[in-house]
Design goal:
Length: 914
């Protein structure tokens, strides 16, 4: 080992002098710009510094530089910088958009003519593009455009008002022409003022700065109203001037206004125009032949009746033709009819004209609607265009509706020309679709023809095949392909369908023949199944073989599911009935073996009925009856044959066990015959086996050999073993075998088990239904008894409190009603109640509450704590749990009140249950 002390005499190397402390880290270059954000100690301080710096509105370059450096150190603090950069980017983009749309708005406002639709489209498109319409300059431009549009709309409205005013002025002039010329002369000055005012207003409208932006129909409307009004006004002035001249000079010409002319004639003493016309008609009308007059009147009346009938029914075209016939008759025979008939003809013609006008108006309305529909076929929104077939059907329906409109009224060639142009334009799309359909139809026809050829080739290739499942699967696939083929015309489809059916029939003919043969074989198997089922003894092997043949046939030749199911039902039905008969016979044989189960079921039902009654005594009696049924041993079977031996020796146990299955099988086979046949002779008795070893008495250690062996455990918990062996086997108890293996040495200290009482023999094992029924009944009975006990316990406490309050010992419940009590406790309670109230029971009450572990009222909490401390010092005194019955007697000896009774009752509820 090396020594710990070095022997080197050289002087040690002096240690270097410590370096001066490292200079403080230099501040970040951007720390001064951001106000100390990079040198902040915590993330919160850094975020506050960043917010203060952002309040100074730094530039984009500084933001970018600071964000690049700070995001690597503190992403939370850099988030505010990123949001400011995003905001500036959005603002920059919105500024570009705002400049673009501001330029468009300036162009609209600077144009000499502003279209209202363009102004509205500007605002809509700007909003869609995301332009900031609420900020300047777009907000001001939007307001200017809105004001400009409002001005234009106001001008258009004023033009409409002016047109109506012109119509009203013309109507005033017309009304004055039907009155006396003196009234017209008096109203001329006011009317002239109104006409001049109207012209001034029209001039103001035409001189407005926005007049050029008004729609084209409004200037023409105003000009037409102006020309019409001036024309009527000039005619009125000239007629009035002529009338005044004629009134002053008898030689002056009469005015053109009929009313004013008749007034001048009446002033001159001349006949009026109506009187002159009547005189001329009377002078020009020659004397007519009565026969011709009668014939003419009859012709006109017939035409008049026809016209009136068509007018009443509302037939426009019929009324038009009847009116033409009536006019022709009136033109030919008008001079030969009287004045009354002529007035009727005129009235009927007027009514027919009104009907014809209404019919024309109604038909034009229908035509306009049809025209709008035809024009809207190609003007549908994107994504809602009509397909070729729907467009074709729509055009066909529109043309049919147009024909009906032509039948209900006179034609309108102008609307028909527009309608036909719209339909032809839409039909061009239909022609494109039809061409595509024809092309696809030719392609689909070729595919179907190829499929038919493929099916015929498949038939030739699979003629020798007998794999019927594969053949059926291939035919189904061919059918699916045929149905999935595309659309072809109806005529072509009829031809192809006939060829397809022929090829498919040829392909499926071998399969159909095989299916017919399979049906015949299956029907034969059905008949064989009926024969087997009708036999007295059901041959299980034959049934299994027949079922195997059926499965083989079903797997080799496929058939229609419904037909195959019918055959299978017919095949299975007789066999199911035979097995059902066999099962019933077996159940009849084993019926006597389930007598104990039936007894348990009956006892369980009786117990359930007692549970519903709510009578504790009845429930307990029914529960005892169920226990007796469970403990009852099975009675010997009375149906045993008389020839059975009375006892079987112990040496014949194996022989009997071997003979039991054979007898059971014979019973099953004999049961199928219905008991009609004579029982077979009993087999010869089996000779007993030689005895090799036999137990004589109890040979276990410590037991007397001459004493009989105790009964051991049975093979199953419920009763004897079914294999005929008594207990486990003949080898003796388990304790003997264990002792033999252990060599007589009890190493585990378990002692001798021979002193254990023999296990109770509980009889045969219960069936599932009986076991469940008795288990449920017992559970319900126990729950009902607990419920009844709780109710009875509450009533007993109530009676006890009543006895205490009344100081009447006769009202105290019996001991069995109160629960488990020590001897003499009830007597002490009775004596305490019977004696006069005396003493203080507060301590006893506290001990009762401590024993019952129930809460104490708040006003007695301190007393209970003090008592608990005292009890800690009394170590040899009995606890409250041991003396609670004496404490109850002390409490009962005192006077009763409501609070004390409630405290005692709460304590006894818990103590009487323990």
């Amino acid at each position: 080992m090396f020594p710990f002390i070095s022997r080197n005499k050289t002087p040690e190397t002096p240690e270097p002098a410590p370096a001066p402390a490292k200079a403080a880290a230099a501040p970040h270059p951007l720390d001064g710009v951001t106000g100390g954000a990079f040198s902040a100690a915590t993330s919160g301080e850094r975020a506050a510094k960043v917010r203060e710096w952002l309040a100074t509105n730094p530039g984009a370059e500084q933001l970018q530089e600071v964000f690049k450096e700070l995001s690597a150190r503190d992403k939370g603090a850099a988030k505010a910088i990123r949001e400011r950069m995003d905001e500036m980017r959005r603002a920059k983009g919105q500024e570009a958009i705002a400049a673009e749309w501001a330029e468009k708005a300036d162009k609209l406002l600077g144009a000499s003519k502003l279209n209202i639709a363009d102004a509205l489209a500007w605002q809509r498109d700007a909003a869609k593009a995301g332009a900031p319409l609420s900020r300047e300059p777009l907000s001001a431009l939007k307001t200017q455009l809105a004001d400009r549009v409002k001005t234009i709309e106001d001008l258009q409205h004023r033009v409409q008002v002016q047109r109506e005013a012109a119509v009203l002025l013309a109507q005033r002039v017309e009304v004055l022409s039907t009155k006396s010329y003196k009234d017209a002369q008096s109203a001329e000055a006011a009317l002239a003022t109104d006409v001049q005012h109207w012209q001034d207003q029209a001039a103001v409208l035409e001189g407005d700065a926005s007049w050029g932006s008004v729609e084209a129909r409004y200037p023409s409307m105003l000009e037409a109203s102006k020309s019409q009004l001036l024309l009527v006004w000039d005619a009125f002035q000239s007629a009035l001037k002529q009338t005044l001249a004629a009134a002053d000079d008898a030689q002056a010409p009469l005015p053109t206004v009929p009313v004013w002319a008749d007034e001048i004639r009446a002033g001159r003493g001349l006949p009026t125009e109506v009187e002159q016309a009547a005189a001329r008609a009377a002078a020009a009308k020659p004397a007519a032949d009565p026969q011709e007059s009668k014939r003419a009147k009859q012709v006109v009346q017939e035409a008049l009746k026809a016209l009136q009938a068509h007018t009443a029914e509302g037939h426009g075209k019929g009324a038009s033709s009847a009116a033409q016939q009536l006019r022709a008759a009136l033109k030919q025979h008008g001079k030969l009819i009287d004045q009354d008939l002529e007035s009727q003809v005129n009235t009927a013609l007027i009514a027919a004209g009104e009907l014809e006008g209404w019919q024309r108006w109604s038909a034009d309305k229908v035509r306009e609607e049809l025209l709008a529909k035809a024009q809207g076929l190609l003007a549908r929104p994107e994504g809602q265009e009509l397909g070729g077939r729907k467009l074709q059907e729509a055009l066909r329906q529109l043309r049919e509706d147009w024909k009906k409109a032509d039948q209900s009224g006179p034609t309108n060639h102008a609307l028909w020309k527009k309608f036909d142009e719209a339909c032809n334009a839409a039909y061009k799309h239909v022609e494109v679709w039809l061409a595509k359909v024809r092309e696809e139809g030719a392609k689909h026809r070729a595919e179907r023809e190829a499929l038919i050829a493929e099916l015929k080739a498949w038939v030739e290739a699979h003629k020798p095949s007998t794999d019927w499942k594969r053949i059926q699967r291939d035919l189904f696939q061919f059918g699916d392909r045929w149905r999935a083929s595309g659309h072809v015309g109806e005529k072509a489809y009829a031809e192809l369908q006939e060829a397809w059916k022929s090829a498919l029939h040829e392909a499926s003919a071998p399969l159909h023949a095989a299916q017919k043969q399979s049906i015949a074989r299956r029907e034969a198997m059905v008949a064989q199944a009926v024969e087997l089922a009708a036999a007295p003894n059901l041959n299980i092997d034959a049934v299994r073989e027949l079922q195997r043949q059926w499965q083989t046939e079903a797997q080799s030749v496929p058939m229609d599911r419904r037909h195959e199911q019918k055959l299978w039902d017919a095949f299975r039905k007789p066999l199911d009935e035979a097995f059902a008969r066999k099962t019933q016979q077996r159940e009849r044989v084993q019926h006597q073996l389930s007598a104990r189960d039936q007894a348990v079921l009956d006892a369980s039902k009786a117990l359930e009925a007692a549970n519903h009654s709510g009578d504790a005594a009845r429930i307990q009696a029914a529960l005892d009856g169920l226990q007796q049924a469970l403990q009852a041993q099975q009675a010997p079977v009375s149906a045993e044959p008389a020839a059975a031996p009375a006892a079987v020796p112990a040496t014949d146990t194996d022989a009997a066990a071997e003979a039991a299955p054979a007898e059971e099988a014979a019973a099953e086979d004999g049961g199928d015959a219905g008991g009609a046949e004579v029982a077979a002779p009993a087999p010869a008795p089996v000779p007993p086996k030689p005895v090799i070893a036999q137990r004589s008495g109890d040979d276990r250690p410590g037991m007397r050999r001459d004493a009989p062996a105790a009964a051991g455990r049975t093979g199953k918990p419920g009763g004897d073993r079914r294999d005929g062996r008594d207990g486990r086997d003949s080898r003796g108890p388990r304790s003997d075998r264990g002792q033999e293996r252990r060599g007589g040495d009890d190493r585990f200290g378990r002692g001798d088990r021979t002193d254990r009482a023999p296990r109770e023999d509980r009889g045969p094992r219960l069936g599932d239904a009986a076991f469940r029924a008795q288990r449920d009944a017992v559970e319900h009975a126990q729950a009902a008894l607990r419920k009844l006990a709780t109710q009875a316990h509450g009533q007993a406490l109530t009676q006890m409190m009543e006895a205490w309050s009344k100081r009447d010992a006769a009202l105290l419940p019996q001991a069995q009603d109160l629960g488990r009590l020590a001897g003499g406790s009830r007597n002490s309670w009775s004596q305490a109640i019977a004696a006069p109230a005396a003493g203080d029971g507060s301590e006893a009450m506290l001990r009762l509450e401590m024993a019952a572990e129930v809460p104490t009222p708040a006003e007695h909490i301190n007393a209970r704590r003090a008592l608990q401390l005292q009890l800690l010092t009394r170590r040899n005194d009995p606890s409250p749990q041991e003396t609670w019955q004496q404490d109850v007697a002390k409490v009962l000896a005192t006077s009763s009140d409501e609070a004390s009774a409630r405290r005692l009752q709460n304590a006894l509820k818990a103590l009487l249950k323990k």
